[in-house]
Amino acid sequence: MKKIIVITVAISFVATLILVWGGHKVVKVTGDAPFCGSCHSWDGLIAQTHLHDPIHGNANPKGVQASCTDCHLPHSSLIAYLGVKAKNGIAEGWTTLTKDPSKKDWLANRENARKNYTYDSSCLECHKGLLERASKAEFADEKSSKMHLKYINFKGTKEEMQCTSCHKLVGHKDLGETLFKQKDTRPESWDEWEKQRKEKK
To answer: Is the model more confident about 32 or about 71?
Structure first.
């Protein structure tokens, strides 16, 4: 009987290690550009603007860069992170299989994406020092401290702000211009004009 208990405990321990390690690997592998891009290939221009971003993207001269999930999943708890990851994964997979990207108004969707797919807990995972700094008297006169204090004071009120309430352009270099150009169908050459004219007939 003692031998069975020892074997059961040993097998349970090894199985738990494998599950935890394997689970961690799966979450890691499914949290960055190659995997995210498999469904987000239809909004590839948006991903490109992140690659060119000099602060949070691949163009950062110091090599510091945020992955997709660093900004676009909540970091308030592991349950929230995994829950939203699963929900978004299913939704994006379905969208990729059933929708036409050329019909989506990416420009009009920006505010929705900013409000619902960028999380303060994500920003604060790296930038929590800004709020701590804002709370200290010696930094009270700094413009950024004044604004971050407003963020702290408005928390839980009807005037509550998100980081993206002020930092609207964070994470994607020239996203607005890129989306406008994508939506803008005016011809840029005589050949394009001819092509559009023929398509309208």
So the answer is: 71
